[in-house]
Amino acid sequence: MCLIVFDWQPNASPDGKRALLTLSANRDEFIRRDAEPMHWWTDAPGVLAGRDLTGGGTWLGVSCDGRFAALTNYRAPGDVRPDAPTRGTLVSAYLAGARTAPMDYLRRVADEGHRYNGFNLLVGDFTRRELGWYGNRADAPPALLDAGVHGLSNSLLNTPWPKLVAQRDALRDLIHADEAPSLDLLIDTLRDPRMADDAALPATGLSIERERVLSAAFIDTPEYGTRSTTALRVEADAAGWSLTIKERSDDDGSHRIVRPGRFERAFEFVIA
C-alpha cells in the first residue's frame, strides 16, 4: 500500500448513521511482482486479503472475527537493506495468528522494528473499537488513533504530502455529503492520476522526475504503479457490525496489468 485515507469513529453508535470505519487505499507496486487478488485464504481460514506471491504476505486484509491490518512502505531509498525480512507478513501474522489486542501486537512489532525496512502499520480490532498505528521510522511508540479522518502514504501518519492532503480532504467532503458514500465512489475518488506541482513535492532522495510521477494518487508507469484500489466500510448491523469491502484491480488474476482496472471483487459479512 502506498496511500490510505480513512475516517475512524470509535464512538460510533450502533443505532447511528456514522460508520465505525470508512477507508480507501491504493496498492502501488512494481509490475513484475506477482500477486493474487483479494480472496479467502485456504491456509488461514477466516482471513480475507490479497497475497504477494514474492514475500507471501499481504498489504491489506480483514478477518471474519473483525480484525484489520494494512501496511505502507516508508520511502527512504538510501536506507533500504535487501536482506531485510518482508514487511507484508506483519499484516498476515496479525490476521492469521492468535487473537490479541492491537496495541499488544504493535508493541511486539516495535520490539523487532529495526529489522525491517521502513514501514507504517495499521492494526485494528473492530469488536474492541481499537485502531492503532506504528511506524518504525517514527520517534514515537505505537499508539491508538483518535477519532477523525487520517491518511498514510510513504511517510509518517498524516504527513502532509500533496496527494495525502488532497485525498484526505476528498474523503472528508464525501462523508459530509453522504455519511455512507458508495464503495465505488470511494474507489473512483482515489484513482486520481493528477500530479502535484513541483514546488509542493517532498524531497525523499529521488529525482524530481520520479517525485513528480509518485505524487499522483493513482500512479501509472511501465514498471511501477497502482495495482489495485480497495474500499472498506464497517457499520452497524442488526446483529452487531457488518463489513463490506471491494477491490478494483488492474490485474485480472493472470498477473497481466490492464488499464484501466476492470476486475472487481466484493465481499460482505457480519463480524462474528
Overall description:
- This protein is an alpha+beta fold and 272 residues long.
- The chain has a single domain (3-270), classed as Penicillin V Acylase, Chain A, CATH 3.60.60.
- 18% of the residues lie in helices and 33% in strands.
- The chain has helices spanning 89-96, 102-111, 162-177, 183-190, 208-214; strands at residues 3-8, 21-30, 35-40, 47-52, 60-63, 67-73, 119-125, 130-135, 143-144, 148-152, 224-237, 240-249, 263-270.
- It has a seven-stranded antiparallel sheet with strand order 3-4-5-6-7-8-9, covered by helices on one side. Strands 10-1-2-11-12-13 form a six-stranded antiparallel sheet.
- It is globular, with a radius of gyration of 17 Å.
- It starts with a strand and ends with a strand.
- This is NRDE family protein.
What's the short story on this structure?
The chain has helices at 89-96, 102-111, 162-177, 183-190, 208-214, and strands at residues 3-8, 21-30, 35-40, 47-52, 60-63, 67-73, 119-125, 130-135, 143-144, 148-152, 224-237, 240-249, 263-270. The chain has 272 residues and is α+β, with helices and mostly antiparallel strands.
Tell me the strand percentage band. Answer: 25-35%
Radius of gyration: 17 Å
Principal-axis shape equals: globular
Number of helices: 5
CATH class: Alpha Beta
**SSE pattern, N- to C-terminal:** EEEEEEHHEEEEHHHEEE
The domain count comes to 1
CATH topology: Penicillin V Acylase, Chain A
Helix content: 10-25%
CATH architecture: 4-Layer Sandwich
Q: Which tags fit this structure?
A:
Penicillin V Acylase, Chain A; alpha+beta; 5 helices; 7-stranded antiparallel beta sheet; 6-stranded antiparallel beta sheet; globular; about 270 residues
